[in-house]
Amino acid sequence: MPSNLEINRREREGVSILDLKGRLIVGEPAGKIREAINGEVTWGRTRVVLNLEHVDYIDSTGLGSMVICYTSLQKSGGTLKLLKLNKRNIELLLLTKLSTIFEIFTDEQDAVNSFFPEREIKRFDILNFVQQQEES
Length: 136
Description:
Layout: E1 5-12, E2 15-24, H1 28-42, E3 47-58, H2 60-75, E4 79-83, H3 87-95, E5 103-105, H4 108-113, H5 126-135
Parallel strand pairs: 2-3, 3-4, 4-5
Antiparallel strand pairs: 1-2
Helix pairs in contact: 1-2
């Protein structure tokens, strides 16, 4: 399985959306995500959503990179939100308690809307997810 990570940037209502594809793991992929976020900060774009729909695997270094990205955006007055995680990656965030740090969304419009306080949004229901896992 290739370890390369593709990152495609697009913008929606002034929010940067980084579509990730591949594996977010130690080595080049972990560095690539940090470079992408540093680029956003350099250009003054501090509202970022990571779309993880096509990321099938995240290791501890990948998680660490996400935390570093979150912190650097926060220092710049922005924030990083996560979109469309698969079941395994959600479980990983729960296990590491990072689900308490990252805002997680299943719908892209909700993720974008979350940057606008006046808009109504539907957040990912972690409690509901956990209960469903226990039942299955």
